[in-house]
Amino acid sequence: MNAAVVVGVAGVVFAYAAFRFVAIAGVSINAAAFSMQIEKLARAQNLDRARKLCMAAPKATLTAVTRAILGAAHMVSAGDGEGRIAQVLSDAGMAEASRQAGQLNRAALGDLPAALLAVGAGAWAVEHFGKAGTPYIAFAAFDVLMIGFLMMRTRSLVADAVGAVHGIASAVASAVAGGATISAAD
Question: pLDDT tens for residues 52-61?
């Protein structure tokens, strides 16, 4: 193994880490503003427009959870009572939040093999090049820190979604109990 191979491995690992970062960073939205707008639309019994708003950021964790809540509105009727409706919608939202958490964690941990490869390449570089190999170890440390950041970001995205579930479910339940309907998903 020569220096060109180590540099190539480091470049691939860096590109992979950057891809993972962009993939996870791309699933975030302003949770407070989104939740407030969805609740406002639900109070106005405009559930179709709420569903359309979810399509503005289709990969965001919170919109996936909200789509699950709105999708569950088809399984209940106004006669079920607002408390029962809210429970069904909340359960659907929490189930989707759990599924989203798993996907985001797998995406963040998907960088772990690349980080281990970077650590191995860095150790090899230090062994063969002495102090000249130190940047490879620094790069490997950066990659490990990136995984930590992605895991924290994942927890933040899921926490935002979980925090919004009950408010959104309650607002949609009130709308459904009040007779609001939602058309079939597109």
Answer: 999 988 888 8
Phi, psi (5° rounding) for residue 165?
A: -55, -50
Per-residue pLDDT tens over the stretch 136-162? 667 667 767 777 777 777 778 888 888
Question: How far is residue 63's CA from residue 103's CA, in Å, rounded to a whole number?
Answer: 15
184 found inside a domain: no
Split into its structural domains, the chain has a count of 1
Q: Are 61 and 158 in contact (CB under 8 A)?
A: yes
Q: Cα(40)–Cα(50) distance, rounded to whole angstroms?
A: 9
Calpha distance 159→62 (Å, rounded): 10
pTM of the model: 0.72
Domain of residue 54: give its range.
Answer: 3-177
In a domain, 182, yes or no: no
Task: Confirm whether 139 is domain-assigned.
Answer: yes
